[in-house]
Amino acid sequence: MAFNDAVFPTRELPSRELPNGAFGRREGTATRFRAEPDSREAALLRLEQFAHLMDSAFVIPGINRRVGLDAVVGLVPIIGDAAGMLLASYIVYEARRLGAPRWLLARMAMNVAFDGVIGAVPLAGDIFDAAFKANRRNVRLLRRHLEKTGGLRPNEIEGTAVRLDG
Asked: Is Transcription tagged as a keyword (predicted)?
């Protein structure tokens, strides 16, 4: 018995042969959630991965602070900050494509602009870039909006847990 079978026990059923001669998966086996390629869930997963890469992909040794490509590219004066703003604008573009309202797009654009303008200040801007994670903020805003409007199933279940001890 494999580890996966111990954690997720399944009924042992024979595989079904499909019409083209290939074998399908057994009934009763657990599968991971796979979003459809054109779905909102898939788009949001891509945006979350992009935000992670831009804002918190690397750990600075010694201080255990996470930074991303935005902070690294921002070390190059002017050009790096402009490139970071351009890359961060992709999240705003995708939010517009997913049907986010204008007020949300404006708030996301303000986060990008604030990150770019303050990040352009030498030295202090680089420290700010490492601390202010505009991409992750924007993806979190978009996720929260899509969950509230019903365009996306909730990532977390809201409520209170009650312990039932006898």
From this structure: no
Q: How far, in Å, CA of 138 to CA of 89, rounded?
A: 10
Taking every pair of Cα atoms in the chain, the longest distance, rounded to a whole number of angstroms, is 65
- Are the beta carbons of 56 and 87 closer than 8 angstroms? no
Q: Return the amino acid letter for 142.
A: L
Q: Is the pLDDT of residue 59 over 50?
A: yes
Phi, psi (rounded to 5 degrees) for 19: -55, -30
Query: pTM of this prediction?
Result: 0.69
Does the pLDDT at position 1 exceed 60? no
Nearest to 85 by CA among 54, 115, 65: 115
pLDDT for 126 equals 86
Cα–Cα dist 78/73, whole Å: 10
Q: Give, for 66, the enclosing helix (H) or strand (E).
A: strand 65-67
DSSP code of residue 160: -
Give the pLDDT band of residue 13 (cuts 50, 70, 90).
very low
